[in-house]
Sequence to fold (145 residues):
Amino acid sequence: MGATFRAEHVGSLLRPPEVLRARQDHEQGRIGLELLREVEDRAALANIELQRETGMEVFTDGEVRRANWMAELMESIGGIRPLDDVPTGDGWRRDRGPDPAEAETHFTLSPQCGFASTAAGNLLTADDQRRKLELVVDTARRVWG
Fold:
């Protein structure tokens, strides 16, 4: 079996304006949790369709229910600090033995970890996000076949 590849998105996708409005309405008591979840569910389905349309084969909901990409993780553990002197260079960086044979390798190409680090998102349009996802898929196909 030859090496395989896939392109996938890791992290948050942009939250559409209707999700941001619904979240604000919920926080201010204008809508209930059930309606907020319905809006988030529609956004999650739209995110899955976006990833399908751009050629991705692995899908996520885009983390539409998260206010911050790391909130739950950081709240559940302690003692986190930045890594210094991370090794770089050629080859695999694993502590479980030698490099795998080529037939055993699976490569993944991912864009930055998310387009929306916070509920408000980043300075990126929905069209920019789509083009970036398409570029990831196109690059993976050109590089790995």
